[in-house]
Amino acid sequence: MISIAISSLRSSSVAIAPAHRYLSMACANSVHKLNDILEEYRAKNYSQEFPRRFQKDIVKAAITANGSSSKRQFNVPANNISADGIEHVLQNIGMGDRMSRSEIEEIIREVGDNVDGGESSCVISENQMLDLISRTWEDHHHGLNQPEH
User: Fold this and answer.
1) Considering the entire predicted model, what is its pTM?
2) Which residues, including other chains, have CB under 8 Å from residue 143's CB and lie 6 or more apart?
3) pLDDT, tens digit, for every residue of 50-68?
4) How many CA atoms lie within 13 A of 106 on its CB side?
C-alpha cells in the first residue's frame, strides 16, 4: 500500500516538473530576494494567517495593481502579473526600495511569457506567481542552478 502511494507521488511530480524552467543565477537570486522580502513582511503583519493565504493575497494585489498602474505600456491579460504589479505590491508594503525594477523585470522575463513581442511586455500567470513566492519553488529549484560535482 505504501509503495502505491509513493509511486503515485512520483508520477504526479514528474508531470509537474516540465512546467519549471531553469533560471539564471541572477534570476534565482532575485526570486530568493523577493521571497525573503515577502517573508519578512508576512512574519510581521500576517503572523496569524497561513502562509498560503498571505501568498494568495499578494498575488491578488499584484493582479489588481496591473489594472491601475499608470506606468504600464501594454494591456496585461486577465489574471496575469507584470513587473508593474510586483513593484506596486512592494511599494504598498513599504519594501519598494529593497528590490530594483531590473531585478523584478528579470524574474518576469525569465519565468513569464511575452504578450506582444516587446521585451517589456512579459507577464507571469497567477499560478506562476504563486509558485515563485512559495517555499516549494525554492526547494525544487535550489539544486537546479548549482554546479555539478
Assistant:
1) 0.73
2) none
3) 999 999 999 999 999 876 6
4) 17
